[in-house]
Amino acid sequence: MAEQTTPIDPAGPPPGDPAPGIPAPPAAGDRQVIRDALGVGIAVGLSGFAFGATAAGAGLTVAQACALSLLVFTGASQFALVGALAAGGNPFTAAAGAFFLGARNAFYGLRLSQLLALPRAARPLAAHWVIDESSAVALAQRGRRHTRLGFFVTGATLYVLWNVTTLLGALGAEAIGDTGAWGLDAAGPAVFLALLAPMVRTARERVTAAAAVLLGLGLLPVLPGGVPVLVAALAAPAVLWAEDRRRPRPSEESPR
Q: I need a surface site. Which of 17, 194, 227, 248 has the fewest CB within 10 A?
């Protein structure tokens, strides 16, 4: 059988497009990953303004607010901590709630440690940047090169911008005085809800969120500040237990 060949377009491929059968250069993929990572880092990093203002409204100094962003660097946990303190909660209870909320990052780290496969010396820095956003961008990539690129560009952008905006937000709130008079005391809860809303997608997650809200608000008048947040975490295992009870059980072995 004679070999068949595909006719070649004498005009050639469009300018800038790779020739047929030749993959796009790695630089093109790198630019896309960097663009996506910068977009996520900048969009989320700007919410540091709200955290700085909320922390100042909760009674933290500028140095304390900046130390939280530098050393803790997980927005949801930071908002939970200052929110509990602003409500008059015990510092240890507030810290416990923030700790349990931030514990999810450890599960991200278990997966990312295999995908990133970083040298031992780089692991402490990488561990500090394991948060929702850097994990999401890294896990969306294909190949170790792009996974590393997405993780570190997102982490670096977000870390720098989050800390700068925390400082500016805390200084601004300190300068204007009473943050409640300006409505800035609502900034923290609003941003916290904005961070969580995209994660509530399935019916199970919506039921869990509703149960947590009912528990938290229902117990707020009777428990010390910060404790209702911890109790609200019981909504997740409760929903899973109820779902398991409703799941049909395997039928008994039918007689032959």
A: 248
CA distance 172 to 55: 11
CA distances from 192 to 114, 147, 160, 240 (A): 30, 27, 20, 24
46 Cβ contact list (under 8 Å, min separation 6): 161, 165
pLDDT tens digits along 103-143? 888 888 988 999 999 998 888 889 999 998 899 899 988 88
168-178 residues labelled b (16+ CB within 10 A) or e (exposed): ebbebbbeeee
The predicted model scores a pTM of 0.65
DSSP secondary structure string for all residues of the chain: -PPP-PPPPTT-SPTTSPPTT-PPPHHHHHHHHHHHHHHHHHHHHTTHHHHHHHHHHTT--HHHHHHHHHHT--HHHHHHHHHHHHTT--HHHHHHHHHHHHTHHHHHHHHHHHHH---GGGHHHHHHT-SHHHHHHHHT-SSHHHHHHHHHHHHHHHHHHHHHHHHHHHHHHHHH--TGGGTGGGHHHHHHHHHHGGG--SHHHHHHHHHHHHHHHHHTTTS-TTHHHHHHTTHHHHHHHHHHHHSPPPPPPPP-
**Highest mean pLDDT: which of 25-39, 89-103, 139-153, 183-197?**
139-153
The one-letter code for the residue type at 47 is S
Answer yes or no: are the C-beta atoms of 44 and 135 closer than 8 Å.
no
The closest alpha carbon to 113, from 91, 90, 138, belongs to 138
